[in-house]
Amino acid sequence: MKNPTRNVNKLLAKAIRIASVAFENVLDRGDVPYVLHCLHVMNAMPKNDAELKIIAVLHDLIEDTEWSFSDLRSEGFSPRVINTLDLLTHRENEEYERYIERLSVSPDATLVKLADLRHNSDIHRMKGLRDKDIAILAKYHKAYDFLKNK
Fold first, then answer.
1. DSSP 23-47
2. Homologous superfamily of 4-148 in CATH?
3. What is the pLDDT of residues 83-106, one digit of tens each?
């Protein structure tokens, strides 16, 4: 009999590898490897939910790389993972407030986005604060409050 925990943990290892390769040469605004952000969000998820950790480590993959949902399906990721990543993917020309409202229907997407917003709002990750950064932080704060009170 197959061990479902072992299988999902193998998929988690695969997800970490996918994120590491996809963001291999990408640095964040603080000149730190971007994959560390993905791992930070992943580590903010409950320890006993490997699928949620998969979602978290891949949360920016579709939006920021050439990976597609079809690619992830072919790698064996579950409908829960694919559907939640779809909610977490900010579409081109989609208003940010609409995006936040759209993902808020899912407890999984909300939990991942809250962790993402907390980490993205950490000013220690930035090299100085410009007016543009202050505006982004205000936008993130508004989204965080909305999701936290949902």
1. TTT-B-TTSSBTHHHHHHHHHTS-T
2. Hypothetical protein af1432 (1.10.3210.10)
3. 999 999 999 999 999 999 999 999
